[in-house]
Each structure stands twice: as C-alpha cells, then as structure tokens.
Amino acid sequence: CDGADSASAKTGTVVRLIAVAIRSHDPADNVRLAETAAGYRDRGLVGWDLAGAEEAHPDPLLHRRAFEAARAGGLRITVHAGEWGGAAQVRRALALDPERIAHGPGAIDDPALCRELAVRGVTLDLAPTSNVQAGVVASVAVHPLARLHRAGVPVTLSTDDQTVSDITLSEEYERAVTAIGLSLPELWAIDRHALDVAFASEEDLAPLRAEFDTWTRGISELAR
Fold first, then answer.
1. What does the angle CA 206 – CA 210 – CA 212 come to, to the nearest 5 degrees?
2. Which among 3, 152, 177, 204 counts the fewest CB atoms within 10 Å?
3. Could you list the pLDDT tens digit for every one of the 224 residues in the chain?
C-alpha cells in the first residue's frame, strides 16, 4: 500500500491492489490473510484472489472460508482458474461466485460454460502471451480470446506480468489484432469493458470512462 501511494503521488495514476492468497498455503492462514487484507481497504486494497500451483492444488473450495472472510470485509472477488485443467477448473471456480476469473481460456471448449459466464457476467481476464509461456495454449494465434469475445463471454486483455512475460501492453494489443484476429472495434470494446469491471470505486472510474470515451470520438477505425 505504501508503494501504491508513492506511485500515485509520482505519476498521478490511481492504483488499486488485490491481495493474492496461495493455493498451497494452509486454509486457516488464508482466512487470517483475508481478514488482515480487509483492514487495508482505506489504503486502496480492494480485491481478493487465489493463485498458485493449480495442478497440485486444484480445489479452490478448500479456501472457501477465506473467500467468505474477504467478501465480508468488503473485498471484491477474483480467482485464478484454468491455467491447468481447462474448462472444468473454470467451472469449479464459479462455485466461489467471483466477479472475475484470471485466465480460463479453456472455457471455450464448453459452450454451456461460456453461456453461463455470459449470463452471470463473470469476466475472464485473459493474457495470451502468458498462456503460451505457461503451456496453456500452443501459440498466440490459436488463443481463444477472439472466439470467447464473439461468443459473448466478458473478457479483458492484459500482460499478466510484464516482467515475467517480457511484453508491454501495447505489444499484447498488437498481437491480439495481428495474430489472433481481433478487429480494432473489438479490441476497443474489450479495453473499454475493463473499466466497467475494474475493482475500483465509481469515483475513480467515472473520469477514466469519460476520458476514454472522449478519446475515441472521431476515430474512424473504431467506428467500423
């Protein structure tokens, strides 16, 4: 939180944080972590996540009490799922009633799951380059980002971890268009959707939405 405050002061960028519990940790320890994290909501810590070695620790419901504690403390809920185990792991994560799911590209293999994600409004936060590096998909070109978006599944696009993946967001956007085949209007719709599902207050998001919408006016490529 101190680092986020420092970054905001230096750059003017609003920073909000998500606490990440680890699947391999003792569930009781993660409950305590969730309770502690909720105490920092006034410092910009706004979300709760579960990540780590999914194949070795596939059942997120072992940490249900931690998610309940985080939700009770006012934190918004996401969970890593589907970096291993495909659509079945994404479906498993839905039992925790998350707003967002980190990764989950294998959902494309289960049309019923895609419909459920769309109906429930659960967003998949996709990171094609990271998914290739982790062996989730064979190449960026076959990543299901475009197919998921066109199937009505809410999605965002990000780098996952710029340092680990050695890619900028601009490069990820370029690959989404040139390799995956998103149109520019589709890429813009995905990017704009991210503001609607960001774990931030309306006070934070309203000026960003206005800035985005002002920028796009008159750009013919986005109107096609």
1. 115
2. 3
3. 999 999 999 999 989 999 999 999 999 999 999 999 999 999 999 999 999 999 999 999 999 999 999 999 999 999 999 999 999 999 999 999 999 999 999 999 999 999 999 999 999 999 999 999 999 999 999 999 999 999 999 999 999 988 889 999 999 999 999 999 999 999 999 999 999 999 999 999 999 999 999 988 878 888 65
Return d(Cα 14, Cα 191) in angstroms, integer: 17
Q: Quick one: which of 135, 133, 130 has its CA closest to 157?
A: 130
Question: Which DSSP symbol is given to 122?
Answer: P
The DSSP secondary-structure symbol of 38 reads H
Query: Which 3-state string (H, E, C) describes 188-208?
Result: HHHHHHHHHHCCCCHHHHHHH
Can you count the helices (H) and strands (E) in the chain?
11, 6
User: Which residue has tokens 């006070």?
Assistant: 203
Query: Using CB atoms within 10 A of its CB, is residue 216 exposed (0-12), middle (13-18) or buried (19+)?
Result: middle
Q: How far apart are CA 149 and CA 153, in angstroms?
A: 5
Which residues form the catalytic set? Answer: 83
- Structural element, H or E, at residue 157: strand 155-157
